[in-house]
Write a structure and sequence with these properties.
The structure is a homodimer. By secondary structure, chain A is α/β, with parallel strands linked by helices. Chain A folds into two domains: about 90 residues, Ribosomal protein L30/S12 (60s Ribosomal Protein L30, Chain: A, 2-Layer Sandwich); about 150 residues, SPOUT methyltransferase, trefoil knot domain (Alpha/beta knot), CATH 3.40.1280. In chain A, about 30% of the residues lie in helices and about 20% in strands. The first copy, chain A, has a six-stranded parallel β-sheet with strand order 7-6-5-9-8-10. Chain A has a four-stranded mixed β-sheet with strand order 1-4-2-3. In chain A, α4 links the parallel β2 and β3. The N and C termini of chain A lie far apart (about 50 Å).
Chain lengths: ~250, ~250
């Protein structure tokens, strides 16, 4: 059983302002919830059906659990088809990166707005072993329920932080090159692919912002049909990111 | 001005049963609407603001237009932030493919359920010049508003049809090989990539169905972290499709 007030409180975390106010966020679904617990993040509360708890008692360990019915979960969930489990976690503290310390491939997202894209990019980065994503302040909140959902547990393994990309890039050591995805760059297959560097992805609607364009070392484009052919004007931002990550890591 | 009955009628097309009953579908946004008009599809009605019509009169040509206000568009739209234009188009007749005639790379989607994934796959196929997508009957309807939206106009250029994939694949000529995306296949970089063939993608939740697995000639997997490393269990279906298309077309 769960009180009406508690249902209201947890539902309120679907909104950014309440997530920020309380420093909490919600994850739903077995993979998501268990991956966060495994990652050692602080769990405020886990809500699950009796059947789910029987199956996963060991993996849950000492986390505080409230048994609820599917009917109650439906009231709290942000999903059309709620899972049997939902958990409230404590947000990680916001950290900043020192680019002098970066010794790997990282992603920078410039005003990425779509939560589905953000979640999918986090999941893809995780697949390819990319552990750091730095987003501009205008990018969508990584704790947005749709981001958490689309990340399929990967948000527990990939560090996603927010920063002023322009100011941060000014502190970049010279050996870290910036690879920016644009529509009129060099063919992705033909550029150098070092094992450290910054892959910069622009917003869905406007691409990379004007202020950041001069900071790109290599403008790259994913080869499609020859110029002049009638085809899609661009690729979805998460698709472009994935193809670039694949090409760097293959 | 538009009547209440007409608003209700157009809104009803957000549901599959009414789209099928009337043989119509809705597209929203400038790119989507103009790409469909350019493709020569029959337009039942175009609804746009006066300002939009002034900017696009030439491209619209002889299509029947109703001028509406943003307030009216908000009532009809399936989007949170409606565009200034929405159009009702006549669905293309369902065709079937003779695999003996296929002389190119095509996609087959086995029970792909997520409309965002479907739309993104159509957009990606268009980018890479893939003109044919054959979906199992259980896959999401290509005229679902979220599919049309995510396809960003590409649905007007890529032929998407529905068929029984098992029966169809039995009629396949030997020179067309089936490349199936699985989690335990050969490294994508190491398999042959002919310029004709079938790329088979499974559903988001269950992958390629058991019935189709024996029909795969080359099981392929996108290389990620080494086995044993903790990372994402899989890639999103539209991401996997895009990386495979890129690798075949690069």
């Amino acid at each position: 059983m769960i009180s009406k007030a508690r249902i209201k409180f947890i539902s309120s975390l679907q909104q950014r302002k309440y997530r920020q106010l309380h420093g909490l966020f919600v994850a739903e679904g077995t993979t998501n919830v268990l991956d966060f617990i495994k990652s050692g993040i602080e769990t405020e509360e886990l809500l699950a059906t009796e059947e789910w708890m029987e199956r996963h008692r060991q993996e849950v360990g000492k986390v505080p659990v409230t048994e609820v019915s599917m009917k109650e979960l439906k009231k709290i969930s942000s999903l059309k088809n709620p899972s049997e489990v939902l958990a409230v976690f404590v947000q990680a503290e916001q950290t900043t990166h020192d680019l002098q310390q970066i010794n790997d491939l990282i992603l920078m997202l410039d005003d990425l707005r779509d939560p589905g894209n953000m979640g999918t990019i986090i999941r893809t980065a995780d697949w390819f072993g990319i552990r750091t994503i730095i987003c501009s302040g205008e990018s969508v909140d990584k704790y947005n329920p749709k981001v958490v959902q689309a990340s399929m547990g990967s948000l527990s393994r990939v560090q996603v932080t927010y920063d002023d990309l322009f100011e941060l890039l000014k502190t970049k050591p010279d050996y870290l090159r910036v690879f920016g995805a644009v529509l009129d760059g060099k063919n992705l297959t033909e550029i150098p692919k070092p094992n450290k560097g910054i892959i910069l992805i622009g917003s869905e609607a406007h691409g990379i912002s004007k202020k950041l364009l001069p900071l790109i070392d290599h403008k790259i484009t994913i080869p499609g049909l020859p110029a002049g052919a009638t085809s899609a004007e661009s690729l979805n931002a998460s698709i472009a990111t994935a193809i670039i990550c694949y090409e760097f890591k293959r």
